[in-house]
Each structure stands twice: as C-alpha cells, then as structure tokens.
Design a protein that fits this description.
Number of strands of chain A: 2
Structural class of chain A: mainly alpha
Helix content of chain A: 40-55%
Strand content of chain B: 5-15%
Helix content of chain B: 10-25%
Shape of chain A: globular
Number of helices of chain B: 12
Oligomer: heterodimer
Distance between the termini of chain A: 53 Å
Largest sheet of chain A: 2 strands, antiparallel
Structural class of chain B: alpha+beta
Radius of gyration of chain B: 22 Å
Strand order of the largest sheet of chain A: 1-2
Chain lengths: 233, 514
Amino acid sequence: MTEISRRALIAGATATAATTAFGSMLISPASLIAQPAPGAAVDPDKDAKVQFAKLSEALTGIDQSILTPNVDPFGMNAEVFAKAKAADASTLQTILNKFNGTAGGPPKSISQILGEDTKDESAKFLMRSIILAWYLGAWYAPQDLKKNFYSDKDPQHSYYSTRRYSKEVLIPHDVISPNAYTNCMVWRVAQAHPMGYSNLQFGYWGQEPPAAEMFIKPLPQDPPADPKKAVSK
Amino acid sequence: MIEVDRFALKFIGALGIVMLLCCMTLTTGRAAGRDMQQQVSGKPNSDDKTCTDIPLKNISEIDFGVIENTIDNAIRQGKNWIPCDANQESDPKGDTPAQKLQRGFDYYSWLTFIALNSPKGGFLGAGTPVWETYKQLPDVMLTDGRAPSDWSDPNQPVVPGPCANKKGMIIHMDMEETYNEPFKTGPLFDQNGNYAVFVIFMNRQMFGYIKDNNLYNREGQETFQDEVDFPEGNIGTGNLGAIMIKVSWKLMKQGVDFGEKITPKYHIIDGLLYRPKQKGDDACRQVKLGLIGFHVGHKTAQRQQWIWTTFEHHENVPTQEDVDKHTTAGPYSFYDPKCKPSDCPVNQVPLGPWDPDPLGWAPFPANPTFRSQIVRTGPSSGELFQDDDVAVLNKLFHDWKRIKGTVWEHYDLITTQWPSSFPCSFKKHPGSLPDPTCTPFPTFLANSTLETFSQPLHDGGVPLATSSCISCHNNATTNPTHHDPKSMAMRSDFTYILEKAHSIHESNAQENNK
C-alpha cells in the first residue's frame, strides 16, 4: 500500500501545489506547544495521538521523531489526527486499537489491518487519507479517494488516467494549514522545499542536497567530543 | 536579527565609503577620557578560556545565594562569568518539553545579561559594562578595508575628526544601520521626536576570528577558503565563544531622565552623535543615551545556530493586550496612551526621508516631525507558556537584592530563541543539514525597539518576513570581491557582520577620484 501511495503522491503533490493558495502563511501560536501545560485541561486524545504517531510512522515510512519531534512548534501530528478523527472517528479508533494492540489482541501490521478491513474498505481509504495528509499537507476525504480510485468499470474517471488533472477528475482536497503545507513530508522526500519558503542556506542550489536519509531519519548522534579538540581556535 | 538588512549592504557600503572618505578625517587613537590599556592580540586569551557555570535546579527554586557566591568567587579569581552555554533544569517539574527547555535558556539569558552589563572584575553598577569595551562594527569593518587594530581592553575606537577630544560612545549616524531597522523597515522615533539609535558590538573571540582570517575586508573574504565557523562556547572546555550584541539607545532628556533629584531608570552613558554632513558641534553632538534594547547572539557547542537573547526597557511600549484592555501604564518611550488610534495609528513609519540629514533632524526638535506609536503585537509569554515563565523569571531577578533598586530592575527579558532540534543543533557546519535552522523556538521573536516593524502578530507570523533571529540570520553571507569570476559569497555562520566588509580597491578608487 505504501508503494502505491508514494507513487501517487508525487502526482498528487504537484496537483496540490498547483491548487494551493500561497497567500497568508500564518503560524498559529496555538500550535507552538504540542503538549498541554500543567493545569491545562487534560487532552482526552492524548494517548490516541501518541498511538497515531506510531501508526503514521508505519504508514509513511518516516521516522516518528521526524513526524513528532520532542519540541514540536508546528504540531502536525495533532492536525492530521484531528482531520482523521473528524472524518471517521470510529474507523480511526478501530485502526489504532488493532495497530497498537489495545483491543485485546497483539499489535497488527498495516497489511493485517487491511486484510481485516470491512467491505466498504473504510480503513484502507482512511489510512490513505492519512498518508496523503502527512505527505502533502492536504486533506483528501476518504470517500473522495474511494470515488476516484482506479476502477476497470470506469476508466474515464480513473485517477491514473491521462485525465487526472481535469477538473472533474481532480480529487477535491483542502490544504490543512500553512504550517502543514510548508512542513509536509513530500518536500523532505524530494530533498527540496516548498515554493517561496526554504530554510536551506545560501548557495544550496549549486550543491548536492543532503542525503535523502537525512531528511526522513533521525540524525546520528555524534560521538562524545574530545574536550581538547573542542577548544576553539 | 542582530545586524541590519543585508540587502542594504551594497548601497550603504558605496554611500558610506564616499561620505566617510570625503567628509571625515579618521584619527586612530583614543577618545578623551579613556585610558590606554595594554594592547593584546585579536586571538582569544585566557579570559576567554574561563566561564562560570551556575546550574539551575528549576526556576521555582532559584537559589540566589548560590548565584551570588558563584559570581563573587569568579570575580575574586578574575574569571569571566558569562555563561559559556545554556544549561537545563536539573530537576524540572512536569510541564512540556518546550517549556522545560525554554526555562534553561531564559535563565541563561538573565545570567548573560547581568554578566555582560557588569564591569570586568565587578558586578552591575561598579563600572563600565564589559560589552561596552567590545569592538564596534565600524571599528572592525573599516571603510578603507585595512586591518583593524588589535584587540585592546577597553576598545580603542576609530575616532572621527569632529569627535576628537570628546568623551562618549561614537554613534555613527552616517551609517543607515544606526537609525533604520532591519530590511529597511524604517526608523523608530521616541515621544520627544528623537531617533532610537542602534549599535553593534562583537567580543574578542568573534573579532579574533575575523581578524585572524582576514575577513575584515572583501578581498580577504574572497581568498578565504574554509567555511566560516566562529568559535563556540563550551561549558566542558570553558571556552566562551563568539558573542555579538546589538543595542538600542534613546536620547535622555535632562530634568526628566537624568539630573538633580532624579532617580534614573535607564542605564545611561555619554554618546557622540557623529554626523559628518553637519558643521561645528553638530558634526559630533554630545548626548546622554539610555539603554532601551539589548540583543545578544552567542554561538555555543550545543547550539550551532547560536542562542538569541533579547531584553527591553520596561517603559518602551505597551503590549497589544494592554491597549485592548485599556490597562496601559505609561509613560512609554514609544507610545502615547492619550493619542487616539485615528490620530496615532500604531506601528507605522513616517514618510521619507528617513535619513536625519535630509530630514533636518536635530536632537529634541521643537516641532517633531514624527513620533512613533508602537505596541508589542506578538503573543505574550503567558500565551506561549501557560505559567508565564518569563514574567515569573523577570520578577525573580528584579526582586534579587543585588538588582532591586538599581536601573537594571527596569529591564525585562522578552525571551530567548534557540534551535530546538537536536542532535541537529549540535552538528558543525549546519549548512549541510536538511534544516540548517534546526527548528527555532519560539518560532518568532522580536524586540519592539530593534525589530519594531517585523514583529509577530498576535496570531502568528509569516516565515522569513516576521522577525525570527535564527531564520533571518540563516541567510547571512560573506561579501567577497570578485577578482576571480568564480568567487561567490558564502554562508557566514549566522552573522551579517561579514557583509559589512569594504574593499581595499573600492577605497583606492575613491582616493584616485578625489
């Protein structure tokens, strides 16, 4: 599933980028702190969000420490979780229970969960929405993904047809937030940056980008510094 | 954040050279009233190899007795007591990862503020703050591109002719950076109609790196082959590391801010407003300057993106929340509570010209052309951190017996910005990382006197446009000559200071055209 989704993602990213209004990129202070402070109301979804981060790692192939860093000014995990919960809370809970083994049985893999999916494939398309949200910073409703999913019976409306960029075939979606757009994973996977926003330093365009793995895996810890060598010049 | 607008560089450089070479007589030596001290090399000396770590249990249990003893011991031993790096709470109480870490940085910021504003070998108020003895930017990036003089303690500034035999810190009003804010966003005028003025300093380690590597002129930057990598502070080795400081000053009014029977609220110094286009005494007017803003950038081993501290005088501006709730408690230097919004729209700049000479500005004008009406618009610390940690920390330090009752109790830490992702922030040469900024936290930070017109809004900001120390300085580069067509600017390790370098040949060309 991940393979198919990733392939589709590149095309989807292009479409998303093309249709994204690149206007205000306000970063809300509400997202500056991902975790509640003492005295604040207890987040009823606190545990579910932790489980969701683990699930997201499995779905995206990107290390959890990248998706949910210790200090998380952007809080994308919470944003994607909120979208998924709003779309289909029941299915999301089922997926989380199975994946984390919190429903009595042992933890299950993504493929096992897909194998146990309901007839309407609600888990499959919700997980696909989650993958797209992480990669593109945009929310594609599961029902829209399903409607546009490849079908031999209706090749004209196949997402994979040559008409996939036409108005009637383009899958509707909303950019989740300016933060989600600039911090979504497609830029990392492509070793690139969104239009109009880059943290890369001067001259980067004339150099090889950092290795792809550096974008999606935690940076290696350095060996302890030799104090004698650490003395500055 | 510390230095101004990189895009202004070429214009300022060209204009500055013409103006300075045509209109000013440079005399190197000492300003009157300063004692010549022993000259030392630009390289770090033993002072830079000692720093004083004052661990933090947690901010609820700061032991000022321990702080006092540690500082007093350091002073007795002649040791530097500026922190070499930020520490974290050893016994943090619950809270979020961001909040716990932020507390350590804010504690570091207060210790740094106190140490830098204390004299060498003494505590606050006992003499000239140590940072005032550092090198000013114009004393390093000389307009003729020649090598700056060696480090001396205190600094021996390049004294323009009109300022010879006068006492005070030279304020180069001929440099746009002195009165215009970053990215040419505009000047700031106080309620007396005077400019707020800005000055940049660097410590010995930063200066030493620039001098030893010939980065003080554009030719030297062209031949420099390495990646710019300033010395880093390191608690383990006791190395202080590179520190740069940008301050903002307000002109003090006699009878109001200082004088007989007046208890000063500001740290006040003698200043010399150098304006080479003016004649007579106006070419170097002696004034009293009060400290209103204080930025520190400090490179450390664990924060290769530098740690960014910002303080302000308590009476600079109200917050937007104060204004909305009608709880302003002036007087303010840059806000008039009595002026209606329709008459005094907030956070606006005047129409040009902004330069003091064409504007015809003189200190304390009888009929000011403009008074800034400024409010702090960003989220308060209470909104960022639910316990309002910064306000708590400010009160703790204000109430400390060594600060209570001094001018320093009127200075507030706004907060500290630091790279929050690690091991990312430990990595040397951040330019090779996917995100060289290593996720600055808080995302935005502005001083209302130094980034007045690029403050975050209450509900956020615009990346790369709203003030963020690390994100902005991540774009800083060198400014080499291009004798070799392949030479190009390089990243400059989070400082715009290197962009201010001049060329020897530009200077020679000016001489030949005379």
